[in-house]
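During data preparation, a discrete fold description was generated, and the record follows.
___
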Amino acid sequence: MSDTVKSALVTGTARGIGRAIAACMVAEGWSVLLVDIDGEENDRTAAELADGPGRALAVTYDVKDTAAAGALVEQAVAAFGRLDVLVNNAGIMAMKPILELTEEFWHHVIDTNLTGAVFLAQAAARQMIEQGEGGHIVNVASNSGIFGGRARTSYGASKAGMINMTQSFAIELAEHDILVNAVAPGPTDTFGGTRELMASVQARMPLGRWGRPEEIAEVALFLASDACSFTTGHVFGADGGYTVAGILEG
């Protein structure tokens, strides 16, 4: 696999972290299938990456359409000849207090953030096994999947599920040399620096600032690369130290 151009399928590429991950991969010369439900913005992303050393091909797709996961993987293979990497990044940050939670809201968040990722990873793993050369699956989780947060029951549950999915897939796919890891971003500036960092975060984050999408992307790129060869089933916090911080005074 190291002697060929890597091909990757990345979801949620129209903006933010997904766009940054795709940009990093194209800059490395990879062929990347850019996948997003927002077709217009996703096409714009692909056009902006067209001058890079790699290839960027945009596809409009709703990750909740799990029945089409296999067909999406086939599109990547048809375009690039193989699939080496899947990055499950597509997701929604939706909040609702527990007492206002509805079944419809719950399923929308879980199906978008977790169910879609599970079945796309399954389809990608089947393709990688057929190729017989291993591969990498990278899941973009969140530190909200590690601890609780106000109005984040659905979101946190979806990301906690993604973390366990990462661990379980890693165990089952190790025999096929498919490595499965996750990056867990902390508060990340995906809106152009127009918001103040929340006071509760500033109080317990050692670095004390928003992360940049590019900083998350660099971690994801490592996990997707050949440099990541003996690491599987792990969650890498890209969060300014937020997850590990306890009492900061002393």
